[in-house]
Amino acid sequence: MNIEQIKEKLKTSEYDFLRKDKNLGDNIILLTLGGSHAYGMDKEGSDLDVRGIALNSKKDILLGTDFEQVVNADTDTTIYSFNKMIQLLTSNNPNTVEILGCKPEHYLHLSSVGRELLENRKMFLSKICIHTFGGYAGSQLRRMENKAARLVGQAQNEAYILKSINNAKYDFKNRYYPHDESDVKLYIDTAVQEGYDSEIFMDVCLKHYPLRDWTGMWNEMKAIVSSYNKIDKRNEKAISHDKLGKHMAHLIRLYMMCIDILEKEEIITYRTDEHDLLMSIRNGEFLDENKQPITEFYDLLNEYEKRFDYAKNNTSLPNVPDHKRINEFKMYVNERIVKGEV
Hints:
By secondary structure, the protein is of the alpha+beta class. It is about 50% helix and about 10% strand. The chain is globular and about 60 Å long. InterPro entries: RlaP.
């Protein structure tokens, strides 16, 4: 399906919600492709994913009743509110950062405000991406290894869990209450639970800490641990549907994107230069006859991990995004909404 066919598809009744939903319609400032089409990794039969951003209404801004996103599962479409998108971009969320780096022709709709957002995208970039993209890459690696039936030992599994939680934990102080006297330390030691060789322990020191922020952090850590219990149940189905190559390709793509951000301070979602390599991985050319990743894939992965480590240690990106500039842009857009200028 080419870009013109996609634009025509968006005009059908299947996508009427884009025009009729009270939060969308004329409030939409950006519509683009997501998933494999956005990365240049689509093939015949690939699902069409649509991503977008819509301005919050004057009423919602003044009353503080902003919506966060509109999701239409039938069409794999997600439209984020402008205010929610600013929050996600500031935290360097990979799924939203990529929306700002699509091919120009992949922007199916782009208003003047949407164009201004793209022009100012570098204000969101920071070293936080090391941990957010690193966390996503780690999750992709776990899925890949589990879906390849590479059953790791219990101790190694604990190490994966700890690494994932530490990646998430890095950004906790940006999203939850920062307090110098409070800390949560996680580490692996000899297990006390029967059937475990080792397990994760925690030392917690929280003083005068908001309960709701603690429950937020706890729920995030709990979700990571719980996700490991679900992986094995999906292995057989994933392998039978030939999704292993796709996970392998997306793992490498995540490293490619983050390296670009760290080295060039650019968001490059569509991987033109690496298209053939990524498609060969996706199409199973790095799997053996038993559906196991071959040595050459792990060599390639090791190469990108080394490049990632070098880039993160030598990047000129700031530790945190340009909050002053981000807040000024957010106020500028929302003030224009309230004044009826957009």
